[in-house]
Structure formats: C-alpha cells, structure tokens
Design a protein that fits this description.
The structure holds 3 protein chains of 3 kinds.
Chain A lengths: L17 H13 L2 H4 L3 H24 L8 H17 L5 H23 L4 H21 L1 H4 L5 E2 L5 E2 L2 E2 L3 H35 L1 H6 L4 H27 L1 E2 L9 H11 L4 H18 L6 H15 L3 H14 L15
Antiparallel strand pairs in A: 1-4, 2-3
Helix pairs in contact in A: 1-8, 3-8, 3-10, 3-11, 3-12, 4-5, 4-6, 4-10, 5-10, 8-10, 11-12, 11-14
Chain B lengths: L1 H24 L3 E8 L6 H20 L3 E3 L2 E11 L4 H13 L4 E3 L4 H13 L3 E4 L14 E3 L4 H16 L3 E7 L2 H4 L2 H10 L3 E7 L7 H9 L4 E3 L5 H13 L6 E3 L5 H8 L2 H4 L2 E5 L5 H14 L8 H19 L5 H10 L3 E2 L3 E2 L1 E3 L1 H4 L4 E3 L2 E7 L2 E2 L3 E3 L6
Helix pairs in contact in B: 2-12, 2-13, 3-4, 5-7, 9-10, 13-14
Chain C lengths: L1 H31 L6 H17 L5 H22 L8 H23 L13 E4 L2 E4 H23 L1 H11 L1 H6 L4 H23 L10 H15 L4 H21 L4 H16 L13
Antiparallel strand pairs in C: 1-2
Classes of the chains: A mainly alpha, B alpha/beta, C mainly alpha.
Chain lengths: 338, 392, 288
C-alpha cells in the first residue's frame, strides 16, 4: 500500500516520533502502578485516567485530520454496552470482550461515517454531537436490551484466563488492558497514516491536489476512532460495574476534547498528559463543592489562553530554552487551519 | 479574704487542667463520608443533606463523640462532590475508601447511587442513600440503607386522601423519561389504580424547557387531575404554570420530590398554583424547626430550608447512634447490625420504623412520619402528618 | 382539525423563540467563526439581570429587559476583547474557551442567586382566541420582538456599512484590514450584539417558562441544531430552520409525546446534511 502513495512534499519521518516513544514507555510503566502503591485514591484516579485516555485518543485520531469529533461518548456507550450484553450471554473472557468492545463501534461507524464524513468543519462537529444524543435516546427506548434508564447492573465479571477480575487492582488492569490496546491501535493508525493525516489537517485542497485520497483516510480514521472509544467504554463499564446511559452523555464529550487540547493536540503524548492533568484536577476540585465547576472553567480558560500548545508545548518550550534552541521542532500545530 | 483569692487563682488553673484534659480525651477523630451533588442542578439536595449531617455530627460531638478503643473520638465529616454522576460517586467512594472511611451518608440521586453501590460493596462500606430507583437497596447490598421510603410506601395513603377531597375519576401522570421518572411513575400509577382511578402515563424528554406541546396533548384527554410525580422542581414548576395558563383548573399533584415553594415561585405565587396536593418527606412543624435553631447554635450558620435537611439530620443521627452503640466507625457490619435493630425514634421528627422487606426484599428502609400538603385558594394549608409508611 | 390548528400556533410560538435564540449564535458563528458555548449562559444571565432589576431595583419590566440586554451585551464585548480576541482564529480553542466562560458564569450566578428558581413572571397575562386555538399574549409579544429583531439584524448585516465591514472581515481579515477595518472593534460589537440578543431572549422567555442557573443548557443545544440545519452564518437559514424545528417539536409533542420529537429532529438534521452538507442555506464551512 505504501508504494502506491505518491510522494508528498509534506511527508516527514515515518518512524515513531520522540513523543510517541515517551507515550508508549509511560503507559508501559503504568502497568507497575498497583505494585508501587496500594493507595486506593491513586488507583481510582489512574483508572479514570486510563479510561479518559481512550476517549482522548479517539478525539485525537480525528483531530489530526482537522475534524473535531463529539461522538466519542456515543461510541464508548456502544462498546461498553456491547461488552456488558455479551457478558450476560456468557462471554466473559477479557480478550473476547475487548474484541467485542472494539468491533461493535467499528461496525456501526463504517456506514455512519459514509454519511457523516461528507460534512466539514462545524457541521461535522454538530452531527457527531447529535449522534451521541441519538445513542442516548436509543438506549432509553430499548429497555429490554439495554436496561433502559436504569442501565445494566450486575452482569458477570470479566475473566482473565479463568480468574475473575473483581479486586481493585484487577479492575485497574482491566482498564489498563483497554488503554494499552487503544494506544497500540492509535500508534499503528498514526504511524502508517500519520503524515498523510497531518497534511490533510494543514490544507485539504493542497493534499487533494497532490493526489492524496483525503476521503479514504477520513473513512479509515473514523471507525478506528470509534473502536478506540469503544475500548474506553468497556473500561468505564468495568470500573462502575454498571452500564448506565448517564455515563455517556453528550456533555461529557467536551471532557475528552479538553484532555486533548489541554495536553497538546499535536501528539499522542498530549492526549496522555492532558488526561492525567485534568482527571487529577477534577478529582481535586470535587473537594471544593459548589466551586468545582467554576474552577474547572477557570482552568480551561487559563489553559487555552496561556498554554496554546498544551502541556506538551510548555514542556517543549522549557526543554528548548534549556537547550538554547529558538525554534520549535514540532511540525503540526493545533487548531483550524484557515 | 484569703480563701477568695485562692479560689480566684484556683479556678483558671482548674479550668486549664480540665480543658487540657478534655482536649486530650477528644484528641482522636473518626471520619464519616458525605457524598452528593454540591454543585450543578441538584446542588440544593446535596447541600441540604450535608447540613443535616453536619447538625447530627455537631450534636454527637458536643455529647462526647463516638466511643472507640482509642477513646471518645469526634466525628469529622469528609465531604465529596459527585456532580450528580455515577462516575463521580464511584470515584468518591474510592477516595473515601482511601481515607479509611467505612460509613457514608448519601448520595441523593439515582444515578449516583447506582454508581456508588458496587464500589462501596467492594470496600465493605455502609451506605445510607436516597434514590427513587426500584433497586435502590436489596439483599445484594446488605450494607446499603435507604433514607426514606419511595412511592411504594406513601403513595397509597396520599392518593386516598386526595380522592376523598377531590373525587377524581381519572388522572394523568407526567414524568421525565429517565430513571427518576420511569421508576416512580408506575408505582404511583399502581396506587391510583388501586383506588379505582383510571391512570395514564406521559413521559417527557429530560432537558425539555417548554412544555406547551405536552400540555396540549395531556389536556386533550381531559384528565380530572394531573400528577407530576418525581419531575424535577424546575420542570414541575414550568409544567404547572403552563397547565394553568392553558386553562386547567383541576388539582395538580406531586407525589414525588419536594420543592413546593420553588414550584409556587415559578408559577407566580400560590394563588396562581390553584389546587395542589403533594408529598412532603418530613413535616416541618415546630418540633422539626428546632433543628434549624440547633444548627444555628452549633455551627453559627443558617441551615438550608430544604426538607432534606431535616430528613438527613434524622437519618444521620440514627447512623451515628448505631456507630456509638457498636463503638466503632470502622466495623461496618457491626454498625449495620446495630442500625437495623435501632428503634426509629427521632426527638424532632417522631416515631417510625424500618420497612422494605416486601418491596426491596431487605428491611433497611427508614420510614418516618411524612406529610401530605394541600394548597387551596392561594393558601398553603397546614401539613397533615401521616404515620410512618409500613410494609404491605 | 382543532388540534392541528393548535399545533400550528404552538409551532409558531416555538419557532419565534428558537429564531431569537439562534440569531445571535449564527452571527458569532458566521462572522467570528466562533462556536460560542457561552451563548446559553448569556440567555440565562439576561433572565437574571432582568429579574434582579424588577425585584431588587423595582424597575418596570420593559426597562429591566433593556438593562439585561445592555449589561449582557457589554459583558459579551468584554469577553471578546479580553479573552476571545487573542485566539479568535483558533476555532477549537475558542470553543473550549467559551465553554470555560460559561462554567464560570453559571457558577457565579449560583453563588450569588442560589440554585433555586426565583419568582419571575411575565407582567402581562391572558390570551387572544384564534378560532378554536388561542395565542397567549406573552408569547405574542415574544413573536413580535423576535420578528423585529430578525429584521433589524438582517438590515444591519446586509444593508449597513457596519454589516459590510463585518462581512468583509469574516471573509478575509488581512485584506479587510488594509481597508482600515478594525477587527478588534467590529468583532467586539458583533459579540455584544449576539450576547444582547441572547439576553433579550432570556429576559423575555424565562418569565414565561422558568429561571434557574441551568436555564441556558437546553438553549445551547437548540441553538446548535437550528443554526446547523439552517446553515452557518445564514440569517435566512436560521429563521427557516427555527420554523422547521418549532413545527416538528410542536406536532411530535402533541400527537406522539415522549422523546420522539427530539429523535425525529436529530434524524432530520442528519438527513438534510447528507443531501446539503452546508445546511439548508449555508456557505461551505471553513477548514478541512
């Protein structure tokens, strides 16, 4: 397939970039977390961060194409519910459930993508928002399948080679499994198509004029993003031991977008850092009762105004200042290329 | 002369010794979690619950605290905002488990309760929850207690009294199509049907702000009465307002969450509200109002006016009493055992009992005397105090 | 037949409300390219300022509405100048920024006024019979104001120097600048106009429905749907979309009930966009 691609002046190196390597290593190291600390709060925040990371990756994969995707909670719901329903029918193996949680959204995303991907810019944004709302309505209107407004509670636990995953650390590892699979999928997806993606984000007309089949890459990215979201949904349902419609509201789509933006939209590392920072911040703010939403709002405002390239951008600037370089080596910038 | 001078010296020294000794005795703390929505749309419920817990804690601390093997320990409340979501509640439970908290008051909403139960069960935490869900408590969660009966407990007595007064032959029930609505509306409908009143159920999309279309639809079938059950306060107020504007003169009922004052404000006053009958979880009479004074005295702040303040004050008192009798804030099973066996008698609210066996399969629902209210000709009639709901 | 007429009348009422709300949203959308997540909170703020003027300052209702519009308009301008303008080209960041602003506004209002709905009712009651149907006077006033506002904004954008300048800026900032147009001022005024319109809607509609710190949430979604269906930046489009949306909500709500109306509307929007990817009357969206 790579031989067919025309040479593009916008191509860059195709190996893992430095930041991708850091992301992979960081996530691999996170496997050791339950061994390093038995602090339940840390484990809980970390589990939530792993789930959020899946959502952030899903957002990031589309954002690289310049498309802002609000459908992440909708596909998370599809993945989470599919796994819960499968468990009720006796499918409990972790790998099987991960497969189901990934494939169900992908299968749905292909026809949906065909309709939705013709849309550009803000139209795409809104329709993906509506998709999430539609998923909510469908869940509510099909109580016999989805438990309706009460959700599905008490489905059989996931098993790993026969052992039931119900202890605190076991649940952490379930979330971890979802996140690591999601990261590998994201790495594969962006490694093979990363440079193509970024060229589209920069200038679609130019990319098309060079013979890049932009529609094809969008059509590939959308299902992959949906599948990654599904993995996150699976993890969330495992954490709560419930598949509940209110876990997947359209309003929560903003959270995943915020994770990507605050961390740095240009890289996978940004998605990871943004998730960790914001999930920790939200947990911290929840101790402030009535001020918590306002504090989160202030954090968003501050980050957007003063951390234009996200947390990753801040670190990069510091690193370059130390090294004495003047220019940023990052090729991609965030935001809409008008 | 000399004696008085000696006494003058003696007193402050004695006082200092007593104070030091006293503080040494009260040096330890036991933590109790308070979990609920303290921000966002449901904040008034969460804040009212929090204040009820604060009252009970202050009362118990003033009386010496909880006796444990470390001595008499003061209750310290650890408050966490769930933002009315299942995830927030699950996260809160994990945070509390991390702090070694084993007793939790709250949450207040169905989604939160769904979120917290499995996590709390895993950490063997005792929960006192509020929720309209049909499965709020049950044999699956032996450590979960329900703070107040749902419609299964009080709907029938209220419907009877409403029928006596208004003689309605049919009623339309309006509820939101989320868990809060779909779990209560059918239970209330059963109560009306049991009294020979024909019922119709209409559900609206959560987030609807303008009910004109729904109102038109509902009034087309000419109901004698309309019951808003557990529709949230703002939606109920708008519905009531639009029903009256559309010309509906029959009684409007609310066999669901409290909030009569707010509803009346939205409608534009009690006169505009017309005939209205409702369920109040607690009758706030003179005795109950003393809790407000006690709160002011002990904390220096004004308590919220929301009924949940009184309800949760009473429930928290019982939980702390159970902790006192079990002499622990950690042994959740022992505390649960004591709690189940406690006589439900609140000095301000009255006598009640534990129910729940027939509806939930576990007898852990706190049933206290509740109230039924009527509004007529712009006047709020004194609440009728109904005896605590019993199992059927 | 009676019900049908009633459904038409109610649909017209809904449409007028939606149009007023969507107008400001599509202005900011079309001219600044900003998805203003704070639009709903401006609506809510308009309601609260009007309420405060009536209840605390004791002013007559029409004056209270005017104050609400002016105050919120000014606030919108300030937000644009101080916050949005720094990053106005970055459509993703402005989305998050305005979201942050709306969270701060909602929290602020809850802290000042409390979470519960205050008593705030429309000063004029009664209705006009329309055959078997009826039109409440308060809704009639909203419809008239809405119509006037749409006309005024249309004239402003398409028949005035200001409108020309602002449209030029939205098409190509660098060229427009060489002609001496100042985006700082013009964008701020646009934002002020948009916030003022939202506040107008809020001050008029919340007394008819209800006022609370979260009154703006459903408003935002409605604005989104109407503006996208009608087409980015198109005032005509927003108006038509408001009519379609209002009629669907009315008929589905009366004849079927439940969530069907909402579901139908969403499916319709997606269907329309499949055929016309820029909405009914919209210009192609900028960006990829």
């Amino acid at each position: 397939m790579k031989k067919d691609m025309p040479y593009s002046v916008l191509q860059r190196e195709r190996q893992f970039s430095g930041s991708d390597r850091v992301t992979l290593v960081a996530l691999l190291l996170a496997a050791a977390l339950p061994l390093l600390t038995s602090n339940i709060l840390v484990q809980s925040v970390a589990s939530q961060a792993l789930i959020g990371f899946c959502g952030a990756l899903a957002v990031h994969l589309m954002l690289r194409l310049g498309l802002l995707n609000f459908s992440v909670p909708g596909f998370m719901a599809v993945g989470g519910y599919a796994a819960a329903i499968a468990a009720e029918y006796g499918v409990q193996d972790l790998f099987a459930l991960l497969g189901i949680a990934f494939s169900a959204p992908v299968v749905l995303a292909i026809p949906i993508g065909w309709i939705v991907l013709r849309l550009k810019g803000v139209y795409f944004v809104l329709v993906t928002y509506l998709l999430t709302e539609i998923v909510q309505l469908v869940i509510v209107e099909t109580p016999s399948l989805t438990g309706g407004t009460n959700g599905l509670i008490g489905f059989p636990p996931t098993t790993f080679f026969g052992t039931e995953l119900i202890s605190g650390p076991a649940v952490y590892y379930t979330c971890y499994a979802a996140a690591i699979v999601a990261l590998f999928v994201a790495l594969w997806s962006t490694r093979s198509y990363g440079d193509i993606y970024d060229s589209q984000a920069h200038n679609e007309t130019l990319a098309q004029s060079l013979g890049l089949d932009t529609a094809r890459y969008k059509a590939q990215a959308f299902p992959v993003s949906a599948g990654v979201a599904g993995l996150g949904g699976f993890a969330l349902v495992q954490l709560l031991i419930t598949a509940h419609p209110l876990s997947f509201t359209a309003a929560s789509s903003v959270n995943y977008i915020a994770y990507v933006l605050i961390g740095g939209a240009a890289s996978l590392l940004g998605a990871l850092l943004g998730t960790v920072v914001l999930v920790t911040a939200i947990t911290q703010f929840s101790w402030s009762g009535e001020y918590s939403l306002g504090l989160f709002g202030l954090l968003l405002i501050f980050s957007v105004l003063f951390m234009r390239d996200g947390v990753v951008g801040v670190f990069t600037k510091i690193a370059h200042t130390i090294r004495g370089r003047n220019q940023l080596a990052y090729p991609a910038t965030q935001g809409d290329p008008t | 002369m000399k004696k008085r001078e000696t006494t003058k010296l003696f007193a402050p020294i004695l006082g200092a010794i007593l104070a030091l000794g006293g503080s040494a005795v009260h040096a330890c703390e036991v933590k109790v979690g308070v979990v609920g929505p303290f921000s966002g749309g449901a904040a008034q419920w969460g804040v009212a619950m929090k204040s009820g817990a604060e009252l009970a804690a202050a009362e118990f601390n003033a009386a010496g605290g909880i006796p444990t093997d470390k001595g008499d320990c003061k209750i310290r409340l650890v408050e966490i905002d769930t933002q009315y979501s299942a995830q927030g509640a699950a996260a809160a439970a994990n945070s509390l488990a991390n702090e070694g908290v084993k007793v939790v008051l709250g949450p207040v909403g169905s989604p939160e309760v769904s979120g917290i139960k499995p996590v709390a069960a895993r950490h063997r935490m005792l929960l006192m929850v509020n929720s309209y869900a049909k499965d709020a408590i049950g044999p699956k969660w032996p450590l979960a207690f329900h703070v107040s009966p749902g419609a299964s407990g009080w709907a029938l007595p209220i419907v009877r009294k409403a029928k006596e007064r208004y003689g309605m032959k049919n009623v339309t029930i309006i509820a939101p199509n989320d868990q809060g609505g779909t779990d209560i509306a059918p239970v209330v409908a059963e109560a009306y049907t049991a009294e020979g009143i024909k019922t119709k159920e209409e559900y609206f999309q959560r987030g609807t702000a303008d009910f004109t279309a729904l109102v038109t639809r509902v009034l087309a079938s000419k109901p004698d009465a309309i019951d808003l059950v557990s529709s949230p306060t703002v939606e109920s107020g708008t519905l009531a307002k639009q029903l009256r504007v559309a010309g509906f003169r029959g009684p409007i009922g609310k066999l669901g969450g409290p909030g009569t004052e707010e509803i009346a404000r939205i409608v534009g006053g009690y006169e505009a509200l017309g005939d209205y009958y409702y369920f109040e979880p607690i009758v706030v009479d003179e005795e109950a109002l003393k809790m407000r004074d006690a709160y002011k005295e002990l904390t220096g702040k004004d308590s919220p006016e929301h009924t949940f303040f009184y309800l949760w004050g009473a429930a928290s008192r019982l939980v702390f009493q159970a902790m006192k009798e079990a002499q622990s804030a950690q042994d959740s099973e022992a505390i649960a055992e004591k709690l189940r066996a406690l006589d439900v008698k609140d000095p301000n609210i009255g006598e009640g009992l534990w129910i729940g066996q027939s509806f939930f399969g576990i007898n852990q629902e706190l049933s206290l005397p509740f109230g039924m209210g009527f509004v007529h000709n712009g006047q709020v009639e004194p609440l009728i105090k109904m005896p605590a709901a019993v199992d059927k | 037949m009676d019900t049908f007429l009633l459904a038409l009348v109610i649909g017209a009422m809904f449409s007028a409300q939606y149009a007023l709300i969507a107008l400001g949203f599509t202005l900011v959308f079309g001219i600044l390219g900003v998805v203003n997540f704070a639009h709903g909170s401006m609506y809510m703020l308009g309601g609260y300022v009007a309420y405060w003027s009536v209840s605390t300052l004791g002013l007559p209702y029409p004056i209270a509405v005017a104050i609400a519009v002016l105050f919120t308009g000014l606030l919108g301008a300030l937000i644009e100048i101080l916050l949005v303008h720094r990053i106005v080209e970055d459509h993703l960041s402005t989305l998050i920024l305005t979201l942050g602003v709306s969270l701060v506004i909602v929290t602020g209002v809850s802290l000042i006024f409390g979470h519960e709905a205050p008593q705030f009712t429309f000063p004029i009651a009664g209705s006009i019979p329309l055959g078997p149907a009826y039109m409440p006077l308060d809704r009639l006033i909203v419809m008239i104001v809405s119509g006037v506002a749409i006309l005024a904004v249309y004239l402003l954008i398409f028949r005035s120097a200001f409108g020309r300048a602002v449209r030029a800026l939205s098409i190509d900032q660098s060229i427009a600048r060489t002609y001496g147009m100042n985006p700082r001022v013009l964008f701020a005024v646009t934002m002020a106009l948009s916030s003022g319109l939202a506040a107008l809607a809020g001050a008029l509609v919340t007394p008819i429905l209800s006022l609370s710190p979260h009154a703006g949430e459903s408003v935002l979604l409605t604005a989104f749907v109407v503006v996208i269906l009608g087409g980015l930046g198109s005032i005509i489009g927003a108006t038509w979309a408001a009519v379609i949306t209002g009629m669907i909500q009315s008929f589905a709500g009366i004849y079927v009930g439940g969530s069907l109306g909402t579901l139908l509307l969403f499916v319709l929007v997606i269907a329309v966009l499949t055929v016309r990817p820029s909405g009914l009357f919209g210009a192609p969206a900028r960006g990829a």
